[in-house]
Amino acid sequence: MNTTTLKRKFSIERTAILIRNRAFEDLPGILIGAGLLLGINLLSIVAAKRAVFNDGSGQAWTFFLLGAGILFSSYAFKGMHDGKSGLDWILLPATPLEKYLAALIEYIILYPLVGAALTLGLSALLSLFESMAGGRGGRIWMPGFSDALRAWGEYAVVALWFLAGSATFRRKSFLKSAGVLMAYMLVMMIGFFLVLASRRSSANGVVLNEMFYMNGRNGFIGGSFPEAVQSALGTVVDVLRYAVLPVFSLGYGYLRVVEKEVRDEVQ
Amino acid sequence: MVQFQRLTFGYGEKPLFQNLDLTLEPGTVYGLLGLNGAGKTSLLKLATGALRAESGGISVFGSDPGRREAACLADIAFVPEDPWLPAIKPSVWLDRYAVFRPGFDRERFRALSNEFTLEADKLLSKYSYGQRKKFALAAAFASGARLLLLDEPTNGLDIPSKTQFRRVLASAVDPERVVVVSTHQVRDLESLIDPAVILHGGRVLFTLSSEEMSAKLASSHLSDIGGPGIVYAEKDAVGWSALLASGDSNGSADLELVFNAAITAPDRLAAALRGETLSSYAADGRDAGLAQMRAQMRDATEDR
After folding, report:
1. Domains in chain B, start-ordered, CATH in brackets?
2. From the centroid of its chain, how far is CA A241?
3. Can you tell me the distance from the alpha carbon of A68 to that of A197, in angstroms, rounded to the nearest whole number?
4. Least CA distance to B10: which residue of chain A?
5. Whole-Å CA distances, A242 to A66, A146, A150, A157, A235
């Protein structure tokens, strides 16, 4: 990095170095996780001649891959809150935007890509071991493009929320972020339930004894709402889930990083 | 130049600084002195932008550190009292973190690491307190930053390291660089600090250059304190260590005595610096002064 780069308000080079540093910091955790999964599957090959994670459609791989990504996201800004390392974090010569963007790129884009490649490699390796052990072999985790894209979209929304949580909560950010997300979903569900219930009550006198469930687009109550209402409701849910929530998470998380001070520690 | 203008800042409702004004010129090693809780570390952190003032302005070579622009952050090196270091080796630290500072002088860093006998193959997080401090000092002195902020730099250093530190600090004086050393160990550094900035009661009580102190104050050991011109005195085993108002001093004034005088008898010190004749110094006055100092320290601790 040179003096000219230093004077820029935003530098791709600085952001790239921040991403690289994050990757180095996360690498031990990723390797430990991969090692654990490898160990579990090797044990299952030894015991039952099959890699348990390669069974079925390989959902277990997806679950661990995305779950670990969310866990990483929820601790992305842990160092910023620490009484001692936080000062170093703030004073590192890069702007808050670059620091936030580095975490965003790392956990929303790079981690899923690299993680998926690693998972694919691990799954293929275990499939080979399975064949060598006399098992069935030939089963490799390889999600289709559209499935992968959908899973990534869902992951990105949740990971953004946990990134914002990490920028907000000093301790136990995973649990706190999850708690707030659940509370948010619960409030939304109750809100929709009440709105729909009141509409139905006024329309045909049905009282609030319908079975209450949530399955995304298909509605919240019963199945007997007019198509238009269900469609409108689905749109509202999608907007809240895929637009409002991520935009809020992005903006709020960034502002928390910008406004971070070292007030928490003894001066 | 570093400027604090009408700076107001506090923790909770009680302000730590109210309308504080201070200008720090390049080519100077400032000693920031104050009681516990006077706000020395907070002032240093405000200068870095890690804390934000409630009102007033801070300018570091024309930039506002609160904006946290990369160029401004690279121009500041702060060594906290208890530095944190990651679990990596020094060479890895250089590759990961020194790269953010184009002015970082790796050769100087290596030379300082050797001088401080820092172990190159050990994880930084395994360093002892003194080693962490020396590493942070070496990194700061090699950083190329024009503002060096050192918080209690000699705490935790062994005696040879203190000597090395003084030598390194002396060599770090540069016409373009501002060095601020916050310390309670004034005797460790009094040969290097010039001027001393005494922070008390939320403001800068005195800014005393060594020239002014040499010209107007002197330290002496007295058997009694009945004589004239005593600004401040402390009883010791065989008499009194005294700070005298003296226009033709042969030696320099003891900085610790000057500090104690500034806190307990600010009016007498101010009068001495103005060259006014002082009334006789009574032991009662000293006792009253110490009681006042203890009360202030107690208040400051309770405020935290």
Report:
1. 2-207 (3.40.50.300), 215-303 (no CATH)
2. 13
3. 39
4. A263
5. 17, 17, 12, 7, 10
A198 touches chain B (CB under 8 A): no
CA–CA gap between residue A199 and residue A29 (Å, rounded): 51
pLDDT tens, chain A, 267 aa long: 777 777 788 999 999 999 999 999 999 999 999 999 999 999 999 998 888 898 877 789 999 999 999 999 999 999 999 888 999 999 999 999 999 999 999 999 999 999 999 999 999 999 999 899 888 877 888 888 888 899 999 999 999 999 999 999 988 999 999 999 999 889 888 888 787 777 665 545 444 444 444 444 444 444 556 777 778 888 888 898 899 999 999 999 999 999 988 875 443
β-pair type (B147-151, B15-24): unpaired
- Specify the pTM: 0.86
Q: Per the CB < 8 Å rule, is A8 touching B49?
A: no
A227 touches B: beta carbon within 8 Å: no
Is this complex's ipTM strictly greater than 0.90? no
CA distance B28 to B140: 16
